[in-house]
Structures are given as C-alpha cells and as structure tokens.
Amino acid sequence: MKSIKYLFFIVTIYPVILSGQDTSVTVNENIILSPAPAILRSIILPGWGQIYQERLTNAALFSFSSIPLYIRSAYFLDQYNKYSLQKDKQEMLTSLSCAVFLHLINIVDVADAAFHEKPTGWHGELLGDTPLKSPWGAVLRSAIIPGWGQVYDESYFKATLALGANGYFIYKARSAHQKYLDTKDRQYSSERSKYNWWFGIAYILTMADAYAGAYLYKFEESMELTILPLIEPTYAGIQVYVIL
Predict the structure, then answer these.
(1) Residues 202, 169: contact at Cβ < 8 Å?
(2) pTM of this prediction?
(3) How many domains does the chain divide into?
C-alpha cells in the first residue's frame, strides 16, 4: 500500500516538473545529443539518461523514486525467502511493479526529450566562466551512487575512497539493525544510530567534494595545457620556453 501511495505522488508531481522545463530547441545541430546513448543509459539505471542530457530535476525525480522501490522489493524478497510470509511476497510484487512502471516512464521521458527538446548536455569552456564539468551533475551522480561524481570528475582515488567509506557505514548500520531486530538489545540500536550519523556525514562530504572537483576540473586542465614547450627561432639557433 505504501508503494502505491508513493507511486501516486510521483505521477502527480511529474506534470508539474515538466511544465517548468525549458522546451526550446537549439539551432546548432552539431551539438545535439544522440538519442540512443541517453535511452540506453536510462534503461540501465533510472535517471542516468537525464543526467547525460543535463536535465537534472528529472534525473533526481526518476532516480530517487525508482531505485528505492527496487531496493524495497529486494528487501521484501529476502524477507519472503527467510520467513515465507505472503504479506512479504505481496509487498515485494507491489514494490517491483511500481519500480518497473516508473522505470518505463523514465525511458519514455528521456526518449521524448531526445527527439523533441533536443538537449545538448553540458558544454564547459576552458577559457570562459562555465566549468568544463557540470558541478550539480557531479553532485547528483554522487547522491545516487557515492563516488560516481568523483569518477565523473576523473578523481578515481577519491571515488574508491568515497564508495568504500559510504559502503562501510551502510554495512555497519544494517548489521547493527539486524542484530537489534534479533536480540532487541538497545546497544545495537545505539550502534545503528551512530553508523547512520557517520554515513550521513560521509554522504554529504562526498557530494560536496564532487561539486568542488567538477568546479575545479577546468583549473587543473588549464594548468596541464599551459605547461607546453614553445619553440622560437633565433639568430644562432632555437630557444625553448616553458609556460608555467
């Protein structure tokens, strides 16, 4: 029943989000994104295609509506396999049906945008004011999967660290929660709360780092490009300079 109410809420606010979008079509055909990569991304992961198109509001809507329902259905499937209760089976089927329904709408949304709105994605400027990487796109990526934003920023060590830290705190919180359910010992309840707090802090720091990494990516690229040899002819030979 909770899944049905959740689905009804998402379907209700979807037209509101659509009405607030800029549907203008660009005249530069050279930078319009191809529909196929966007559609394929949204088939693999809800919202990924919208992130690719830089339609971040829609990306957040479909990611944070579909993915929790998939997780919820997996949880009740696990409960059903353990205890064979019909209510768990029913909850699993309801959550899965709602998740698939939203996933399909997500695919239709990204395809419709690709063919009608013709999005161009993110276009940064090395010598302008626009960052080369989308800062809020990086934040949303790390909000969906901690560390994904760092991969987008090409900070692979940070990505591994972020994924490991967030995953560790989630695992410890879930482990403490399961022990509390089994024993009703308040010690495990306190432990669960502690790790939930640590996860919250790590999660926020991961998103903040993703934003900073995307914003500063242009500076790092500029530094790499300016360290180039310049060769100038002279009367006696060749002089070589390095711009720092």
Answers:
(1) yes
(2) 0.84
(3) 2
